[in-house]
Amino acid sequence: MVGAWATSVRTRMRRDDGDASIQMAIVFPFVIALTIAVVQTAMWFHARDIALTAAREGVNAGRGYQSTPGDGAARARATLDRIGGDSLRDSAVSTDGSTNDTVTITVSGSAISMLPGIPDLHVSQSASATREQWTAP
Protein backbone atom coordinates (compact mmCIF):
# COMPACT_ATOMS: atom_id res chain seq x y z
CA MET A 1 0.00 0.00 0.00
CA VAL A 2 2.79 2.43 0.88
CA GLY A 3 4.62 1.61 -2.33
CA ALA A 4 1.56 2.49 -4.44
CA TRP A 5 1.16 5.80 -2.61
CA ALA A 6 4.83 6.71 -3.10
CA THR A 7 4.62 5.82 -6.78
CA SER A 8 1.52 7.98 -7.15
CA VAL A 9 3.27 10.96 -5.49
CA ARG A 10 6.35 10.55 -7.69
CA THR A 11 4.17 10.40 -10.80
CA ARG A 12 2.34 13.59 -9.84
CA MET A 13 5.60 15.37 -9.07
CA ARG A 14 7.05 14.41 -12.44
CA ARG A 15 4.04 15.90 -14.20
CA ASP A 16 4.88 19.25 -12.54
CA ASP A 17 8.45 19.32 -13.83
CA GLY A 18 9.20 22.76 -15.31
CA ASP A 19 6.08 24.50 -14.04
CA ALA A 20 8.08 26.81 -11.76
CA SER A 21 10.31 27.88 -14.65
CA ILE A 22 7.33 28.71 -16.83
CA GLN A 23 5.65 30.61 -14.00
CA MET A 24 8.81 32.65 -13.40
CA ALA A 25 9.12 33.38 -17.12
CA ILE A 26 5.59 34.78 -17.07
CA VAL A 27 5.74 36.67 -13.75
CA PHE A 28 9.33 37.95 -13.74
CA PRO A 29 8.92 40.67 -16.43
CA PHE A 30 6.06 42.17 -14.42
CA VAL A 31 8.17 42.15 -11.27
CA ILE A 32 11.03 43.91 -13.10
CA ALA A 33 8.63 46.48 -14.60
CA LEU A 34 7.10 47.17 -11.19
CA THR A 35 10.54 47.60 -9.64
CA ILE A 36 11.62 50.05 -12.34
CA ALA A 37 8.36 51.98 -11.97
CA VAL A 38 8.89 52.33 -8.22
CA VAL A 39 12.47 53.54 -8.68
CA GLN A 40 11.37 55.96 -11.45
CA THR A 41 8.67 57.41 -9.21
CA ALA A 42 11.17 57.85 -6.37
CA MET A 43 13.58 59.65 -8.72
CA TRP A 44 10.79 62.00 -9.87
CA PHE A 45 9.80 62.82 -6.28
CA HIS A 46 13.46 63.42 -5.38
CA ALA A 47 13.85 65.83 -8.31
CA ARG A 48 10.69 67.65 -7.15
CA ASP A 49 12.12 67.96 -3.64
CA ILE A 50 15.36 69.41 -5.01
CA ALA A 51 13.44 71.98 -7.10
CA LEU A 52 11.21 72.95 -4.17
CA THR A 53 14.18 73.33 -1.82
CA ALA A 54 15.95 75.60 -4.32
CA ALA A 55 12.78 77.67 -4.82
CA ARG A 56 12.30 78.10 -1.07
CA GLU A 57 15.93 79.08 -0.58
CA GLY A 58 15.57 81.62 -3.37
CA VAL A 59 12.41 83.09 -1.89
CA ASN A 60 14.06 83.38 1.53
CA ALA A 61 16.94 85.31 -0.01
CA GLY A 62 14.76 87.45 -2.28
CA ARG A 63 12.22 88.53 0.32
CA GLY A 64 14.73 90.13 2.71
CA TYR A 65 14.75 93.88 3.26
CA GLN A 66 16.21 95.67 0.20
CA SER A 67 16.74 92.37 -1.63
CA THR A 68 15.69 91.90 -5.22
CA PRO A 69 14.13 88.92 -6.98
CA GLY A 70 17.48 88.61 -8.76
CA ASP A 71 19.13 87.93 -5.39
CA GLY A 72 16.59 85.16 -4.86
CA ALA A 73 17.24 83.70 -8.29
CA ALA A 74 21.00 83.72 -7.62
CA ARG A 75 20.47 81.88 -4.31
CA ALA A 76 18.18 79.34 -5.98
CA ARG A 77 20.79 78.72 -8.69
CA ALA A 78 23.53 78.31 -6.05
CA THR A 79 21.33 75.85 -4.15
CA LEU A 80 20.72 73.87 -7.35
CA ASP A 81 24.44 73.77 -8.05
CA ARG A 82 25.07 72.53 -4.50
CA ILE A 83 22.37 69.84 -4.16
CA GLY A 84 21.05 69.19 -7.69
CA GLY A 85 23.70 66.86 -8.99
CA ASP A 86 22.40 64.62 -11.78
CA SER A 87 18.95 64.27 -10.23
CA LEU A 88 17.57 67.48 -11.78
CA ARG A 89 18.72 68.04 -15.36
CA ASP A 90 18.36 71.16 -17.52
CA SER A 91 17.27 73.23 -14.54
CA ALA A 92 16.08 76.81 -14.94
CA VAL A 93 15.23 79.49 -12.38
CA SER A 94 12.58 82.11 -13.06
CA THR A 95 11.29 85.12 -11.12
CA ASP A 96 8.17 85.57 -13.26
CA GLY A 97 5.20 86.60 -11.16
CA SER A 98 7.23 88.66 -8.70
CA THR A 99 5.80 92.05 -7.80
CA ASN A 100 6.81 94.91 -5.50
CA ASP A 101 5.03 93.13 -2.65
CA THR A 102 5.77 89.46 -3.34
CA VAL A 103 8.67 87.36 -4.54
CA THR A 104 7.97 84.26 -6.62
CA ILE A 105 10.73 81.85 -7.61
CA THR A 106 10.02 78.98 -9.99
CA VAL A 107 12.54 76.20 -10.50
CA SER A 108 11.99 73.78 -13.36
CA GLY A 109 13.95 70.96 -14.89
CA SER A 110 13.61 67.30 -15.68
CA ALA A 111 14.08 64.07 -13.75
CA ILE A 112 16.09 61.30 -15.34
CA SER A 113 14.03 58.65 -17.11
CA MET A 114 15.10 55.05 -16.57
CA LEU A 115 12.80 53.72 -19.27
CA PRO A 116 14.20 53.57 -22.79
CA GLY A 117 12.29 55.60 -25.33
CA ILE A 118 10.56 57.72 -22.70
CA PRO A 119 11.86 61.29 -22.36
CA ASP A 120 12.93 62.76 -19.03
CA LEU A 121 10.01 63.71 -16.76
CA HIS A 122 9.28 67.44 -16.35
CA VAL A 123 9.50 68.94 -12.88
CA SER A 124 8.40 72.44 -11.86
CA GLN A 125 8.13 73.83 -8.35
CA SER A 126 7.57 77.37 -7.16
CA ALA A 127 7.58 79.24 -3.89
CA SER A 128 6.18 82.66 -3.10
CA ALA A 129 6.31 84.98 -0.11
CA THR A 130 5.70 88.62 0.73
CA ARG A 131 8.69 90.93 0.69
CA GLU A 132 9.91 92.48 3.89
CA GLN A 133 9.31 96.23 3.90
CA TRP A 134 9.98 98.97 6.39
CA THR A 135 6.75 100.51 7.64
CA ALA A 136 6.07 103.18 10.21
CA PRO A 137 4.02 102.13 13.21
UniProtKB/TrEMBL annotation:
What InterPro entries does the entry give? TadE-like_dom
- The transmembrane segments are 20-39
Could you tell me which residue ranges the TadE-like domain spans?
A: 18-59
Which keywords are on file for this protein? Membrane, Transmembrane, Transmembrane helix
Any one Pfam family match given in the protein's UniProt record, by short name = TadE
Q: What is this protein called?
A: TadE-like protein
